[in-house]
Amino acid sequence: MELQTALEGRRSIRRFQDSPVSAETLACIADAAAMAPSWKNSQVTRYYAVTDPEKRRRIIESMPAFNRPACESAPVIVAVSMVRNRSGYDRDGSFSTSKEKGWQMFDCGCSAMAFALKAHELGLGTVIMGYCDEAVVAEVTGMPETEEVGPILALGYPDESPQMPKRKMSDQILHIL
Known about the structure:
Blueprint: H1 3-9, H2 23-33, E1 45-50, H3 53-61, H4 68-73, E2 76-83, H5 102-121, E3 125-129, H6 134-141, E4 147-156, H7 170-173
Antiparallel strand pairs: 1-2, 2-4, 3-4
Helix pairs in contact: 2-5
């Protein structure tokens, strides 16, 4: 699949088929996401693919009501995390730029988009969500204290084909100086 086709075809999917996603497919997606750029190649993003029904239920209950339906139908909930105090920092522990801690979120976002695009290429759908009880997600996944919770992705085979929402084009977003 060409990149432009993937970018134009990927949608936020909120209804999924009742079909499992194999461990091999999850590994393939994570390997592709690892190609995303990161601050000084810090590679801070981690993925916790939750398929266990009880663990999924606990994460779903930690989310606001408007995000629960997408997660309830998804066979996999992916809790994305970021390694703390690495991206955007110098070796002495000080921030490298005025963006401070923001670089780890930027790196995580780049990786999450690569994850979503690879999933799309393989015929899967995702929706990236930002609201959850982070303490619950960290506990359910066994996430170490050296990491913090980032976005949650619902993942599975789509059971819908949403239309592309209106997008701003270069005449609205590009400034050539």
